[in-house]
Design brief:
The structure is a homodimer of 175-residue chains.
Chain A lengths: L2 H7 L13 H12 L10 E6 L2 H8 L7 H4 L2 E7 L9 H23 L4 E5 L4 H8 L6 E9 L16 H4 E3 L4
Helix pairs in contact in A: 2-5
C-alpha cells in the first residue's frame, strides 16, 4: 500500500477476526516498530508480544477499557525502559511516550498496509502490568497495540470525522 | 513510496537544503498528522507551522539542541491542548505525548514518502515556547518536527544501527 494512503485511511478498530497473524507478517510489523527513531537515539522502547489467551486476559485486567486485548490476535506491549542518566522523572517519561507513539504508529501502519487492523490500549495500572509481564522496576507500559484482522464491519467506515483542518493547523502563532 | 519501505528507510536527519516545501506537499503532510488517531478520540494535538526565519530562531532559543529549527524549511510544532475533563496531571500528559508521537510519525512518514527529511526536536523550556507561539495557559509543546529537503549527505547512510531485534522483542513476558 502506498504510504500516504495507508496513513490517511488507517482507523483504530476494536473488532477483530480470530485468524492468527502469520509469523513473517508479525516479524515485519515488529521490525517497523524497531526502526522508529528516538530522542538522542536513546531507544527507550521495547516490544513484548503477547498471544497466549491467559496472558492476554491477565493484561486486560490491568486497564479499564481493554476488551480489545483478549480478542486480538497479538498484543504488542510497548515498554519504556528508564533512561540510564536520568531519574525516572516527568521529563524523561515525557519524551519516552512520544517515542513510543512513533513506534506504535509504525507498527500500526505496517500492519494496516498488510490488511491488519489495530487499536492502542491504555493500561491504567502499571504495577499490575509489571507483575503480569515480569517487568523490572522503573519500567513503564506506554501502551498496548492490539493487532488482528478486521472482524465485523469495514474498519474504514462509520468512524468519527477528525476536527476541521482550520482547527488543527495554525500558522506562525496560535492566535 | 510503499508503506513498509517508507517506515524502515526513514532516518531522522538534521541537514536540510534551503529549498522550500511546495504548499500542496505541506498540505498533505499536515493532513497526515491530522488523520492520526488519539486515545478516546480526544484529539489533543494541534500543529503550528512556523516558516518565518525570525519565528524559527525564537523557537530554537527555547530548547538546548535546536540547530535544525532555524535551518529547516518548515517547523511543525505539535501542541497538546489540555483535556477538558481532566486536571493537567501526569496521566493526561502521559497519553498526550503518545498521541503526539503518532501524529509526528505520520507527518514524518508522509514527508519521507515525498523525499522530505525530518527530525523531531525537544523544546526544554515550555514557557518560552508558549510566549513565542502565543499559546494559552496549560498548552504544552510535545515536540517540534523540523522538515526540509535533505542537504549534505544521503540521510539513509551512516546512521547508527538499531538495537538487535532479540533485544527489542520479547515473547509473552519480559524475561
Amino acid at each position: 500500500m502506498e504510504t500516504y494512503r495507508a496513513i490517511v485511511t488507517k482507523r483504530d478498530t476494536r473488532a477483530f477476526d480470530s485468524k492468527p497473524i502469520p509469523e513473517d507478517v508479525l516479524g515485519r510489523i515488529l521490525q517497523a516498530g524497531r526502526m522508529a527513531g528516538s530522542a538522542k537515539a536513546a531507544e527507550p522502547v521495547r516490544a513484548v508480544v503477547v498471544r497466549a489467551q491467559a496472558q492476554k486476559e491477565a493484561l486486560a485486567a490491568c486497564g479499564r477499557f481493554t476488551p480489545q486485548i483478549p480478542t486480538c490476535a497479538a498484543a504488542v506491549v510497548l515498554v519504556l525502559v528508564p533512561e540510564p542518566d536520568q531519574p525516572p522523572g516527568q521529563f524523561a517519561y515525557f519524551r519516552g511516550p512520544f517515542d513510543a507513539g512513533r513506534a506504535g504508529q509504525n507498527i500500526m501502519l505496517a500492519a494496516w498496509s498488510e490488511g491488519i487492523a489495530s487499536c492502542p490500549v491504555t493500561l491504567h495500572d502499571n504495577d499490575c502490568a509489571r507483575a503480569v509481564l515480569g517487568l523490572p522496576e522503573g519500567h513503564l507500559v506506554a501502551n498496548v497495540i492490539a493487532l488482528g484482522y478486521p472482524g465485523g464491519k469495514d474498519p474504514t467506515t462509520g468512524s468519527r470525522p477528525r476536527m476541521p483542518v482550520e482547527q488543527y493547523v495554525r500558522w506562525e502563532r496560535w492566535g
